[in-house]
C-alpha cells in the first residue's frame, strides 16, 4: 500500500488525502477501500479527514470535481479568447482529452464508482458536467450560426460523440502505448472538426 513519503510531508493535508484516496480507489475500488486505509496512506488521522471531508463519499465526489473544475476553467479561457471559432473549438476539444489523460485514474474511478454517490451528490456532479457540455456545445452552435460549421448534425449529438470518446479513454489509453496523449488529443479534435465541416 502507498504510504506518505518525506516529499509528501509538505503537501497540504486535503491534497494528501485526495492523492491517497485516488491511488487506493484506483488500485482496490471505492467500495473496498476503508477510511482507515486512506488516512494511513496519507499519514494523517481520521479527525483530519473529517475536518476537510465529511465522508469517504465526499472524497469520491472531489476526485472528479477537481478535474471538472480544471477543465471548466480551461474551456472558459478557450471560449472567451479572440481566436477564430475553429481554433477555439479545436483547442477545447484537444484540451479535454489531454486533461482527462493527465487525470486518468480520477476519470476511471469516477465512472466506475459514481453509483456510490448519494442521489443529491450525483445530481450535483451531473449538473456541473452538464454546464461544461453546454459551454462546449455553445462553441459548436456559434460556428454553426456563423456558417463555419455544418448544421447537418445537431450540436447536442456532436457533443455526445466527442465526449463519448473522452469518457472511454480510461478503458483503453496506456501511457506506454503507441500514441502520446497529445497525439490522441489531436486525432480526436481533428475527427470532431471533420465531422463539422460544411
Provide a descriptive summary of the structure in words.
The chain is mostly helical and 198 residues long. Helices cover 73% and strands 0% of the residues. It contains ten helices and no strands. Helix 1 crosses helix 6 (104-113) and helix 8 packs antiparallel against helix 10. The longest helix has 27 residues, at 119-145. It is elongated and about 60 Å long. 28% of the residues are buried.
Features:
KstR2_TetR_C; mainly alpha; DNA-binding transcription factor activity; transcription regulation; DNA-binding
- Main beta sheet strand tally, sense and closure: none
The overall pLDDT, averaged over residues, is 91
List unreliable stretches of 5+ residues.
1-7
Instruction: Note the run of SSEs as H and E.
Output: HHHHHHHHHH
Distance between the termini: 53 Å
Helix content: over 70%
Shape type: elongated
GO biological process, one term: negative regulation of DNA-templated transcription
DNA-binding region: 34-53
Keywords: DNA-binding, Repressor, Transcription, Transcription regulation
Domain HTH tetR-type: 11-71
